[in-house]
Write a structure and sequence with these properties.
This protein is an alpha/beta fold and 397 residues long. It has 13 helices and 13 strands. The relative contact order is 0.16. The chain binds pyridoxal-5'-phosphate.
Length: 397
C-alpha cells in the first residue's frame, strides 16, 4: 500500500435521485445498535417485529411477510426464481426499465415470456392483460406498480388482480418505489406476491427487499416439479428461516434488519394515510414549482408518481455537467434516465424522510441557479413561490 487511506468521511448529500433517499436519522441510529447472533431470542423477536410491521405496510394478513436479504432486484429475483419453473408461461406488463427486468429474470429462469406493453410514459390498460389471458393462460402475471424509470404509477391494480383471479393466473407486483409512498393494497387488490425495496419510500438504506405472498403463491411454490434453481433466492427455504423453525439458510444482515424495523416502525407511527398524503403533497408541490419555472414534465399527467418526478432537461443544459454542478454547489443529487430517455430527462425523487416542503424548496433553488448558469431564463424565485403555495394549500386541504 503506497498511500494512506484516511478515516471514512463521506459528504452529506440531499439525495433526490431515484434512491437511495436520505434515511431518517433514527433509522441510522438503529443500525448502529449492537450486533446480535441470528438465533438469539432477542434477534428473532426483532424478525417477528419486522414481519408484523410489514403486514401493516403491505396491508395484508399474509403469514409469509418478511424480507429477502438483497436489494429490490433480489426480491424480484426471489419471486421469479420461486414461482417460475422452466417452461412456465409468464406474462409481463412492460412500459419501462423494471418491466424489462421482470422479462429478463423470467427468461433466465426458463419461463416462456410474453409481454403486454405501453409506451414509456404511459401505463398498461388492464384489458390488454385480460385479452391476452383469454387467448393464452399464464401461470404468473408480473406488473410494476411504480415504474421508476418513467415516473408512472400503474393504476387499476385491483382490476388487474380481479382479472388474474378470474383467469387463473398469479399476480406478482413490484412495489419497490411505491411501498410507503402511495397505497399498496396487497389483500384488497388480490395481489398474490408483492416485493419491494428499502431505500425509497420505506426510508432505509438499500440492502433488503420486503416481500409478502399469500397461500395461493405459497402452494404454487410448494407444488413445483423441480427445485428452485437458485439456492440463495429460494423462498421455500427463506420462509423457513423467517418462522419458528429458523432454518439456517443464510446469516441475516443484522444491522439492516434493525434499520428496516425502525423504518417500518416510523411508518406505523406516522400512519400510512398521513404518509401517502405527505408524499402526494410534496410531489405535487415539486411539479407545480418546476412548471412555474417553465420546465416541461414527462409522461401522462393522469398517472404521475408523487415520489418520482420526470422533467425534461431545458434546452442548452448539459445533462452531466448540470448534475455535477448541482452536486458540487448544492450537495443535491438528482437522477438521469435510461434507454430512450437518457440525456433528455431527469428524475427527481422526494421519498420517505425527504418528502418534505424544505426538500422541494432546496431543489428548486438549486435547479434555478444551475439552469441560469447555462443561460436558461426564468423568473427569479417563481418555482419556490409556486411550490410553497401549492404545498400549503394542499396541507390546508
Ligand atoms: C421499480 C423498481 N423495481 C426494482 C428496482 C431494483 O431495486 P434495487 O436497485 O434495490 O435492486 C428499482 C430500483 O430503482 C425500482 O425502482
Amino acid at each position: 500500500m503506497t498511500r494512506s487511506i484516511g478515516v471514512l468521511d463521506p459528504p452529506i448529500r440531499l439525495l433526490c435521485g431515484t434512491g437511495p433517499t436520505n434515511p431518517d436519522p433514527r433509522v441510522l441510529r438503529a443500525m448502529a445498535a449492537p450486533v446480535l447472533g441470528q438465533f438469539d431470542p432477542a434477534f428473532t423477536a426483532i424478525m417477528e417485529d419486522v414481519m408484523a410491521l410489514g403486514r401493516y405496510v403491505f396491508r395484508t394478513s399474509n403469514t409469509r411477510t418478511f424480507a429477502v436479504s438483497g436489494t429490490g432486484r433480489g426480491g424480484m429475483e426471489a419471486a421469479i426464481a420461486s414461482l417460475v419453473e422452466p417452461g412456465d408461461s409468464v406474462l409481463v406488463g412492460t412500459c419501462g426499465r423494471f418491466g424489462d427486468l421482470f422479462v429478463d429474470l423470467a427468461t433466465r429462469y426458463g419461463g416462456r415470456v410474453s409481454q403486454v406493453t405501453a409506451e414509456w410514459g404511459q401505463v398498461l390498460d388492464p384489458q390488454q392483460i385480460d385479452e391476452w389471458l383469454k387467448r393464452a393462460p399464464a401461470k404468473v402475471v408480473a406488473v410494476v406498480h411504480g415504474e421508476t424509470s418513467t415516473g408512472m404509477l400503474q393504476p387499476q391494480l385491483g382490476e388487474i388482480g380481479r382479472i388474474c383471479r378470474e383467469r387463473g393466473a398469479l399476480l406478482l407486483v413490484d412495489a419497490v418505489v411505491t411501498l410507503g409512498g402511495v397505497p399498496v393494497e396487497v389483500d384488497g387488490w388480490q395481489i398474490d406476491m408483492c416485493t419491494s425495496g428499502t431505500q425509497k419510500c420505506v426510508g432505509c438504506p438499500s440492502g433488503m427487499a420486503p416481500i409478502t405472498y399469500n397461500d395461493r403463491a405459497e402452494q404454487t411454490i410448494a407444488s413445483r416439479k423441480s427445485p428452485v434453481i437458485s439456492n440463495y433466492f429460494d423462498l421455500t427455504q427463506i420462509q423457513r428461516y423467517w418462522n419458528p423453525e429458523r432454518l439456517n439458510h443464510h446469516t441475516l444482515p443484522t444491522s439492516m434488519t434493525y434499520g428496516l424495523r425502525e423504518a417500518l416502525r416510523l411508518i406505523v407511527e406516522e400512519g400510512l394515510e398521513a404518509r401517502w398524503a405527505r408524499h402526494q403533497r410534496t410531489g405535487d408541490a415539486l411539479k407545480t414549482g418546476l412548471q412555474a419555472m417553465g420546465i416541461e414534465l414527462f409522461g401522462d399527467p393522469r398517472h404521475r408518481l408523487p415520489m418520482i418526478t420526470g422533467m425534461f432537461i431545458p434546452e442548452g443544459v448539459s445533462d452531466e455537467a448540470a448534475r455535477a454542478r448541482l452536486l458540487e454547489q448544492f450537495g443535491i443529487e438528482v437522477a438521469t434516465s435510461f434507454g430512450p430517455l437518457r440525456g433528455r430527462l431527469w428524475r427527481i425523487g422526494t421519498m420517505g424522510y425527504n418528502a418534505e416542503l424544505k426538500t422541494v424548496l432546496t431543489v428548486l433553488t438549486g435547479l434555478e441557479r444551475v439552469f441560469q448558469s447555462f443561460g436558461v431564463k426564468s423568473d427569479r424565485g417563481a418555482g419556490v413561490v409556486a411550490a410553497e403555495k401549492a404545498y400549503h394549500s394542499a396541507a390546508r386541504g
